[in-house]
Design a protein that fits this description.
The chain is mainly alpha-helical. The protein is built from 17 helices and no strands.
Length: 376
Amino acid sequence: PNPPVVDNDALKQKLQEALNKLVPQLKQAVVTYPEKKVELLTPVAQIKKQMDAGELQEAKQGILAVGQLLKSVMAQGTAPGGGDTQPQSEDPLRVEYERKLAALQPSYMQALKDMLGDTSKFRTVMTYAIEQAEAGVYGNAIKAIDKLALAVDQAITAGSSKPQPSENDLGASYQAKLSALQPRYDQALKEMLGDTSKFRAAMAMAVELAAAGDNAGFEKAIKVIDRLTQAVDQAFAAGAKETDVIPENVVADRKKFLQSRWQEAIRASYAEIEKLAGPLESSDPDPKEVISAITRHLDDFVDELNNAILNAQSASSENITPIEQALKAIQSYRSKINSDPLLVHLGQAKSQLGADLKVSETLLSALNDIETRLAG
């Protein structure tokens, strides 16, 4: 398959379907354990708000966490033989994991909502913890939850200690950045430097966001203006290199290699992950779901790089900036691949499950090939 491209409508539909599947179980849990009503239904209300606001990655994490919490609640008071008062003999690590996950959930959701700390890293660690728990490796899941809880607490503490800017302050900052950018932006359009259609779209988005007149709108508009300023500066730098024009056929060849080599790497990575099917059959009741969860994590992990590679297809002999941006993304992903918790764990699967997985090696090999070909 081609490298995955995010389709927000399709993702929102899948999330809604997943949430709908949980509703009957939630109703049953609330009837059986009314004291858990607030604990169960509060995150559901937050998930619905996130989906309405388009915060789909946050909603996805919330649904996974609610599913885990639901399993924990429903496991109470149910004996293996169907009795209704005898508690199950549970793995103490599982009990500890579910307790810590439930305790973390409110502050975790707050950090994502208020964009406190490194929210991208928070999502990655939460995904890893849930996937480890689903695989029955509760020790790793607990360690991840403990680290995440510490990081979230620090982020919330740091965020709450900062004076909140007024709308006037943020509005003034937005206007100052916009005024500083405007002359170079106009010149870039006039001289057709860079991807002018994207420049216009970004400017329109910033103006629309700022028109809301509130803190959230100004903050988002400022981020768009900052990215647009960087893109315009890069366009001027590339446009100034009049003697460094690369022939169109060479650019076309590089774009083709970039896309095909990365697609090949993604397909090969999927194949590596599928190697877990056999070893997991003896230790997990649903190995396909574990593999699916790992694949989803990989898709989310490479999403930013996918976008850079897709954007590189707009490069031309007169504007190679998109290719240069793809190269920067590739260089950034080297360290990310070597430090991603799940990819590191997959690399250790041989000693734990007997499956020699080469996911990280496959991705890094592709990045090396691409960088060599594009940097020439």
